[in-house]
Amino acid sequence: MSDTVIRCDELTKYYGKNRGIENLTFEVRPGQVYGFLGPNGAGKTTTIRCLLSMLRPTSGKAYLFDREVSVDGQELRHRIGYVAGDVALFEKQTGQWMIDYVSGIRGRPGPSTKELCERLQFDPSRKVRELSKGNKQKLALVIALMHDAELLIMDEPTSGLDPLNQQVVFDILEERTSVGATLFLSSHILSEVERVCERVAIIRAGTVVAEESVETLLDRALRTIQVTYTEPVADDMLSGIPGATSVERVGECGINAIVASDIDGALRRIMQRPIKDIEIEHATLEEIFLEYYGHIDGEEGQ
Fold first, then answer.
1. Cα separation of 219 and 123, whole Å?
2. C-beta separation of 202 from 289 below 8 A
3. Phi, psi of 245 (to 5 degrees)
């Protein structure tokens, strides 16, 4: 078995003078569910295109299954199921023609094709040009998943799908990873990533600015503590809470505190007065994401 399924060593891609990605270094282990987060233009798609040898990097190297990626990497691509962020299909052909065409390239029919069409409620007999954006996305998903690939590279896989079909897609992905497939999920829909991923990298302006387990990221994030006391809040409770970045009064008997550290010290201070109710909310990945991107006006790149 390969030690890594994906590995990037200082991977860099420039489009002329414009930055695509710069010095990306990370790895994805076999069977891992890895999230690749960033807003549009941060460099997610450029990274994927370099991994799939659609683009030649300016410098650095990318590896799949411990083999360096090259333009002639047909054997490697046979082990991958890929959904592009901008799905391109043969508009004049039917969905079934597309399925058969890709099966021919792979050398065998996709064993999961019928099941996927049924679960996604996709009719392959219709021509691609007649399909809605959501149904084109379903076709792309069927093509990517029908051969039970070892590595699934999904670039915004639920784009254009309604919530019910989004649920079906993630049910399928969870089933595939439960039997050993590796999932590399590129997305800016953070609730999706939080649901399925074990580890995430956050990419900003073409550079990875953080890489952690989802659990660690959430543990390190801000907490919101909402407290309702049994009596009016004294002014001295609006200051001196350890680790709090802000404290505000809520009505006559409540406070809302944002705590970044020393949660134990904060709770000890808060509980010095009789409490009627208390609620603690952990930050979501979206809130963590805003910590990295909150002061950025825009991004360049792909």
1. 44
2. yes
3. -90, -20
Domain layout of the chain by residue ranges: 6-218, 222-282
Angstrom distance (rounded) from CA 38 to CA 293: 9
H helix intervals, the chain:
44-51, 74-77, 95-106, 113-119, 133-145, 163-178, 190-196, 214-220, 263-270, 285-293
The Cα 31–Cα 244 span in angstroms is 39
Give CA–CA dist 63/239, Å, rounded.
52
Domain 222-282: which CATH number of 3.40.50.2300, 3.40.30.10, 3.40.630.30, 3.30.70.1560: 3.30.70.1560
Q: What angle do CA 44, 50, 55 make, to 5 degrees?
A: 115
Q: Are 275 and 230 in contact (CB under 8 A)?
A: yes
What average pLDDT values come out for the chain (302 residues) when binned by 10 residues? 90 94 95 90 92 93 92 78 92 96 91 96 97 97 96 94 94 95 88 86 89 81 90 90 92 93 91 94 76 53 50
Q: Residue 153 and residue 262: Cα distance in Å, rounded?
A: 39
Residue 166 neighbours by CB distance under 10 Å: 17
